[in-house]
Specification:
By secondary structure, this protein is an alpha+beta fold. The protein has two domains: 211 residues, FAD/NAD(P)-binding domain (3-Layer(bba) Sandwich); 163 residues, no CATH class. The chain has 17 helices and 23 strands. A seven-stranded mixed β-sheet has the order 5-4-15-16-17-14-18. A six-stranded mixed β-sheet has the order 8-2-1-12-21-20. A three-stranded antiparallel β-sheet has the order 9-10-11, with no helix packed on it. Helix 1 runs parallel beside helix 7 and helix 4 packs across helix 16. 46% of the residues are buried.
Length: 504
Amino acid sequence: MSAENVKKITIVGGGSAGWMTAIYLNKLFNHSEKNYQITVIESPDIGVIGVGEATVHSIRFFFQAMGLDERELLAETNATLKLGIMFRNWMKPRNGKTHEYFHPFEHQRLGQLLDISSAWFLNNRDQIERYDEGVCLSAGLIKEGRGPKAEHSRPYQGVVPYGYHIDAVLMGRFLRKKAIEAGVIYVEGTVKEVVTEQGNIKSVKTDSESFSADIFIDCTGFRGLLIDKLKQDNWDSFSEALPCNKAIAIQRELPEGHTPNPYTVATAQTSGWTWQIDLVNRQGTGYVYDSDRISPDQAESELRGFLGDKSNILKSTHLNMKVGCRREFWIGNCIAIGLSGGFIEPLESTGLHLIHLGAGLLATHLPTENPSQALRDSYNRLMSGFYQDLKQFIVLHYCLSDRDDSAFWRAAPGTVKHCPKLQEHLAVWRHKICEFHDLAGSYATTFTDENYRYILYGMQHYPALNLSVQAEQSQQVFGQLEAMTQKAVAGTLPHADYLRQLNQ
């Protein structure tokens, strides 16, 4: 393609959203010849919001497709590996013990005559183990402090699926370095003015320069600096379904004698929940809460009380969260990706996943000539569906709680009425296993019926099954799983040993 025909994409905002989008579009469109000149304008004055610093497992596929070296990525971002999330205190204590369950990334094992979930119930295994302990390998690995990697695991592969705990600021820098090396233009500056013309962005201006482009991508976070210039009243709030709208984040040194866990911990508190995410050099913690129930000062006090030792705190930050999504993500020649497009509270670590979805979907919808309204409508419909699907999955975690010790938790079961489909499903799932067909046709992108089962049965929303099979037929799968777990534990490295090798 001749230089005069090369189109321009200008991304305003760096961080995870800007640099992931830049590196993705550059890889896809400019790998053999230059079809787009891609520029990222990143402000040195606006900080990166790295709230949860955890990912879902599918982000591995993004990093791998971008040609990034996994060991280099992990080493440069102080990352650890993540097998899932341990939920604690989301229901009343059971038998004097804090309620907990684990949500792994792992697919569940197939049974023979019956699916493994039905077999688990019919064999009354809820009397001897948690659901996750009975149907996956990951629960056995974390009990023994093992990660997903064997001695000779290839990059981006493990015995079970895994995601990452990652320093968001360092990851932004790492991706910026890789994008620049690949030919993306980097401009350090703060956009002061957005010029519009006939429903499009004509240019953006910094203190020293003006930038025109064919396509503008808004990665300016909650500010929505570009997209808001094109349309007001363009936000679908999820606040009624998901009332947690603020967070206090605290970074602290790893507690003495504590080795990084290969999983995130999400512990329910009086008016929300706290996260604990172990990096190799520190622990990221935070309290996501409903500001209608407690004040920022009360939230910080509760978090500090939960953490205990105050001497090892490195940094604390109060954050406002705008929970919901755009009604239209793509307007004219402007597309909002990342926080500017929407935000689901960080309970299931979907932030980077949604950036990946937004960039990938844009790539498939971006034509060589001017985009039609039909393409914009398709993009907007799909992105809205993704956010609505994730909203429903997050509400599932809250609405099944039986806690009644605070106003927040007494109100939690009522959040399901803002997800009518989920309400219908829950009634059905009192009488049958949650299965693929129940959710078929949805906008699920990473959480399927298998993930729903981990939450449903972890929160003890059990079905009354009307099935009868020979015990030996249904028990065989559990013996096989136990043998596989023992083999996996024997064949994988302790998580701490793997991290030590990375950083030598």
